[in-house]
Amino acid sequence: IALTARPPHTAGPAAAWVLNHFGAWIRSVAFVPVRKPSGWPDYDLRKVDYLLWLNLKVILVDDSMTHVMEVKENGLDAMLFPQPWNTCTQSVSEILNQLAQF
């Protein structure tokens, strides 16, 4: 499952992009709104909320230190994906090797 945090009006194009590029490996795309639109219910406003709702064994791979910390603080597995804006010191190859061991 690809899980993204974004404005609701961009969720459809993002899902199409993910499935177009990664559809052989990813079969579902979900999102949590970056900002809750007026009139929307209060569920699943953070990635951790969505993952806890799923109630499945998951590993979040994310480039946001905030999302990774929130998920780990709630007892789920998460890995920080290396990007210039975070403190990850692992390479993409190292991340993929770790995932393969799960």
Topology:
Elements: E1 2-6, H1 11-22, E2 29-33, H2 47-54, E3 59-62, H3 65-73, E4 77-80, H4 92-101
Parallel strand pairs: 1-2, 3-4
Q: Could you please describe the fold and organization of this structure?
A:
With 102 residues, this protein is an alpha/beta fold. The chain has 4 helices and 4 strands; from the N terminus they run βαβαβαβα. A two-stranded parallel ribbon has the order 1-2. A two-stranded parallel ribbon has the order 3-4. Strand 3, helix 3 and strand 4 form a beta-alpha-beta unit. The chain is globular. It starts with a strand and ends with a helix.
Radius of gyration using CA atoms only: 14 Å
DSSP, total strands: 4
Model regions low in confidence, pLDDT < 50 over at least 5 residues: none
Write down the secondary-structure element order.
EHEHEHEH
- What structural category characterises the helix and strand content? alpha/beta
Q: Tell me what portion of residues adopts beta-strand conformation.
A: 15-25%
**If strands are numbered along the chain, what order do they take across the biggest sheet?**
1-2
**Cα separation of the termini:** 16 Å
Mean pLDDT: 92
**Inertia-based shape:** globular
Helix content: 25-40%
The number of helical runs is 4
Q: What kind of sheet is the major sheet?
A: 2 strands, parallel
